[in-house]
Design a protein that fits this description.
The chain is mainly beta and 960 residues long. 8% of the residues lie in helices and 45% in strands. It is built from 12 helices and 45 strands. The strands form 7 sheets. It has a 22-stranded antiparallel β-barrel. It has a 7-stranded mixed β-sheet with strand order 2-1-3-8-9-6-7. The protein has a 5-stranded antiparallel β-sheet with strand order 16-15-14-21-20, with no helix packed on it. Strand 24 and strand 25 form a beta hairpin.
Length: 960
């Protein structure tokens, strides 16, 4: 859709100077004085009808390219995630990869991807457009995501970003429940633009390089812009920050009663079943002195021999082996061309290529084998034969799959010899757009039209090192007579250093996964004025869209065969197409009368028909009232919908390991020991009544989920009430611009597609004996959880409401310079999720909390305030970011946080203002994120808080 060349749009606010939010009504007022056509009618995000930008009925935030540069950030997603109305979303601070499995919606981990999530409704409910058109979804070789990776769009291609902070499915279709992010790219440029930036953390890590160059030729009827970008982000290791030295905040050893360290120890842990004649004291053993290269001697009394009782001190601390900030490299090339074919017809074309190389890292592979291992594959059935030359127990450690009683529970061994697990992604993205737009007259009326085609391809390959083949492990541990050919008997009992290179060469393999997505989007739009009323012309817009999307995920053949030792996954693929039509009308009711400077109504309807069987018709209505010229009041109602995504429909069953505690384990601090009701319910769920199930707290529990082709679209309703006060009496006096804006929103999502949170499932089973919950908790004979089941369903509803508040002031030019003050805040008044139970339904409130898995905090207040000053060629700003404290489910409080960012810039006039030199420090006060006990990140919530440490940067910009 053609968006016009007017670049100062009506909105809630515009983000500048780090996160500076200035109402776009103010921007429009500032620009109108200099514009050649004051009040020119243009298309703005939130409406398809051309209108005066001062009278936009929708709340929109605008960021231009200069605003993005002023943050010092090298990712557009990082800038957007700082909006108070944003909930964060996936970003490069998230290190989770195959080590904890795939998310429940079939979308894959998205390692190295960055998203935008508005209103805490998840990124899949925020629609991302580029130049008003759909953009190909992300891919990272771990699933089929339903969201856009903002890092695939070169930052120097962006002219501005318009963020509609309200649902608008009737105008834009599926996914626009929380809002719309419309990225407007450059269509023309005159001359050279280039910049180079280097930044680093004070600790000497996380080095970031960011280089951009573009050149444009602008003629009377032809414009061509070519550009390239390169961004390299260095790693920040958890070993280099105090917060992440152990699995729990403040922990100093694995002896801490909070647990958290892994039983897959470097020297191994061998757990026997009760009744085993070789049962040692304590029930589990480890090697006494590693490495034990031979068979070793086993003394059941543990007073001698090569084995001793396993203790908490033997557990493995995996925390220092992860990333706080993942390393990545992005480079891309883009081009844009515009050609006026006649006085009323224009052709536009754009082409973008982007390459991302990124990496996630996890600790050495934890190899678990045995009936209580919980892998869900062949490793759970492995028996270690008595003839294995390294088996010291004199008997076969039987898994019980041969009909005989199991003689051991599991063996956990950290494969330090294989090196750390690394997940390296290579993602290629290409998009191409072409459009024709123009105008024509019917009588005295002018109509505007455009036809557009957008194509996108995303291809990702992931290489995982550090995995082993379960079939080969089983053979190497089985009868010696069966270990023939290339087979090398495996020593799983000898501790660190006992697995030789020959053993590794036989059991290990390099995993290669792949995923891809493609999209074709075709649209046609027509708009204009139908007829005149006393208050003005009746405007309309109408259009048609046809879209095709395809996605696939192909794990390594070894993984598909169920033979990997890490997270299992299966291949999945699917596609759909949709045909959609929409119409919008704007009716002016009153104008230039007492108490009715302006009164108008706007309505839109859209019908969507999906090849998957989903159909939807949505409606929106908006009222706009200006009782006086300085005060704008708006109210709107919008219906929304979100069609099930490809991963949700066709995704194969996958596992994620959730960092949650089992309330049924008989250890200090558990529900089993504190509540007779919990003990009763746990026993009914398959936990031994004698209390022999004693798995420490702080571990991970496997959860299984998969796609569901019977899913129906989500639906939503959004109520919005807002007011903007921008007094004319202040402008031209002590203020160049002054405004106050408040917007109240109330969003309800029904039929939300999700699996019930596994932590909630466990709690409801243990505490309430809820039948529906207990049916989804699968336990082994010893009481350990094999898996928590969670099929994707239209299971419940989400409700959120709150206030967006913005105050902005900028001074006129004075002898002392120009000053500015901006305050932008979000007040979360409610966020609840409802889902079914065995006896009805229940509702959980997340306001003022952090949920832990998946990581997300819901602070009551988030605010950004910016103080700026400029004089001559000098510009400076201080940005303060405030996040109110939240509480974890265990009662632990995450305190308030205030971040401060400082930036200084100088554009010397003696160099013809061609160069700009910038120095900045983000997190100048060296504020640490609050420690979090239940977060899956390294003891903090990476969707809400910054990486610990001050980040300084230098940049040189060139404009010729």
């Amino acid at each position: 859709m053609k968006t016009g060349n007017f670049h100062l749009h009506c909105s809630i606010a515009a983000l500048t100077l780090g996160a500076l939010v200035v109402p776009a009504t103010v921007q429009a007022q500032d620009a109108e004085a200099a514009a050649t056509t004051p009040g020119e009618a243009i298309v703005v995000t939130g409406s398809r009808i051309r209108q005066n930008p001062l009278d936009n009925p929708s709340p929109v935030v605008v960021l231009d390219s200069a605003s993005i540069a002023k943050t010092g950030l090298s990712s557009v997603a990082d800038v957007l995630q700082r909006l108070p109305s944003a909930a964060g979303g996936l970003n490069t601070k998230v290190n989770n990869s195959g080590n904890i499995g795939n998310p429940q919606d079939g979308g894959g981990v998205g390692a190295g991807t960055s998203e935008i999530d508005l209103r805490y409704l998840l990124a899949k409910r925020t629609l991302v457009l580029v130049d008003g058109m759909r953009y190909v979804n992300a891919t990272a070789a771990s699933g089929i995501p339903s969201t856009v990776d903002l890092n695939t769009i070169p930052a120097n291609q962006i002219e501005r970003i318009e963020v509609l902070q309200s649902g608008q499915s009737p105008l834009y279709g599926s996914d626009a429940i929380a809002g719309v992010v419309n990225i407007i790219t450059k269509s023309e440029q005159d001359g050279l633009r280039a910049s180079g930036q280097f930044g680093t953390y004070r600790q000497g890590d996380g080095h970031t390089q960011d280089y951009n160059v573009s050149y444009g030729i602008k003629g009377p009827t032809t414009s061509v812009v070519l550009g390239a970008s390169y961004v390299k982000q260095g790693k920040v290791s958890t070993a280099d920050r105090d917060l992440s030295q152990f699995p729990n905040p403040g922990q100093t050893s694995c002896l801490d009663p909070r647990g958290g360290c892994s039983s897959a120890a470097v020297n191994g842990r061998i757990v026997f079943n009760p009744g085993n004649p070789s049962l040692p004291a304590g029930g589990s053993v480890t090697v006494r002195d590693a490495p034990l290269m031979g068979q070793g001697t086993y003394d059941p009394t543990l007073t001698g021999g090569d084995f001793r009782a396993f203790t908490a001190a033997d557990r493995f601390n995996f925390s220092p082996y992860n990333y706080f900030l993942t390393p990545s490299e992005r480079y891309g090339f883009w081009g844009s061309a515009k050609q006026e074919l006649s006085s009323n017809v224009t052709f536009r074309a754009k082409l973008v290529y982007n390459r991302r190389n990124s990496q996630n890292q996890a600790a050495f592979l934890p190899l678990f084998i045995g009936p209580d291992a919980g892998n869900g594959n062949l490793l759970d059935t492995v028996s270690i034969d008595a003839t294995n030359p390294y088996n010291p127990f004199g008997i076969t450690l039987n898994s019980g799959t041969n009909g005989q009683p199991a003689t051991y529970s599991f063996i956990g061994r950290r494969l330090v010899e294989a090196g750390q697990r690394t997940y390296t992604q290579h993602v290629d993205t290409m998009t191409a757009n072409a459009s024709l737009d123009g105008s024509f007259h019917v009588g005295s009326r002018k109509f505007y039209w455009d036809v557009n085609a957008a194509f996108g391809w995303n291809d990702a390959k992931q290489t995982f090192t550090g995995n082993v083949n379960a079939a080969r492990v089983a053979q190497a541990l089985g009868p010696l007579a069966d270990c023939t050919g290339d087979c090398v008997p495996l020593n799983i009992f000898g501790g660190a250093g006992s697995i030789t290179q020959a053993m590794l060469d036989y059991i290990s393999f390099t995993e290669h996964d792949r995923s891809s997505q493609s999209m074709q989007d075709y649209t046609a739009n027509l708009s204009g004025d139908l007829f005149d009323l006393p208050a003005g012309p009746v405007g309309f817009a109408m259009g048609y869209e046809h879209r095709y999307q395809h996605g696939s995920f192909t794990p390594d053949p070894v993984i598909q065969a169920g033979l990997g030792a890490d997270i299992p996954a299966q291949a999945a693929s699917g596609s759909y197409n949709t045909d959609e039509v929409y119409a919008e009308v704007r009716v002016p009711l009153l104008k230039d009368t007492p108490f009715f400077e302006l009164l108008e109504a706007d309505g839109a309807v859209r019908h969507s028909d999906y090849s998957t069987g989903s159909k939807s018709t949505t409606f929106t209505a908006t009222g706009l009232w200006k009782p006086v010229s300085d005060l704008l009041l708006r109210a709107s109602y919008a219906e929304g919908f979100r069609a099930p995504a490809i991963g949700e429909l066709f995704g194969a069953q996958s596992r994620a390991d959730a960092p949650i505690d089992d309330p049924c384990t008989n250890v200090t601090g558990s529900g089993w020991q504190s509540s007779a009701t919990i003990r009763t319910n746990c026993i009914a769920n398959g936990v031994p009544a004698d209390g022999s199930y004693q798995e420490p707290l702080g571990g991970q529990i496997g959860t299984l989920t998969g796609g569901n082709q019977n899913l129906k679209p989500e639906t939503s309703t959004t109520w919005l009430f807002g007011a903007v006060y921008s007094p004319a009496w202040a402008r031209g006096g002590f203020a160049r611009s002054l405004s106050l804006e408040v917007n109240y929103y109330d969003i309800t999502v029904d039929g939300a597609i999700s699996a019930i949170n596994p932590q909630v499932t466990l709690a409801r089973c243990a505490e309430l004996g809820d039948t529906a919950a207990c049916d989804n908790v699968v336990r082994t004979g010893s009481g350990r959880i094999a898996s928590v089941l969670g099929l994707l369903q239209n299971i419940g509803s989400i409700r959120t409401r709150g206030l967006d508040v913005s105050f902005n002031y900028s001074s006129p030019a004075t002898d002392l310079g120009t000053f500015g003050l901006s305050v932008n805040a979000n007040h979360l008044m409610k966020y609840t999720e409802s889902f079914p139970t065995g006896t009805g339904s229940t509702t959980i409130s997340y306001k003022d909390t952090t949920r832990g898995f998946p990581d997300q905090s819901y602070p009551e207040w988030k605010a950004t305030s910016i103080l700026s000053w400029s004089i001559g060629g000098f510009d400076s700003s201080f940005t303060g970011r405030y996040i109110k404290g939240v509480t974890e489910g265990d009662g632990h409080k995450l305190g308030d946080r205030f971040y401060g960012d400082v930036q200084l810039s100088y554009t010397p006039s003696f160099m013809d203002s061609a160069f700009t030199f910038t120095l900045g420090v983000n997190n100048v006060f060296d504020t640490d994120p609050p420690a979090c006990n239940t977060c899956t990140g390294p003891n903090y919530d990476p969707t809400t808080y910054d990486v610990p440490g001050q980040f300084g940067y230098l940049r040189i910009g060139v404009r010729m």
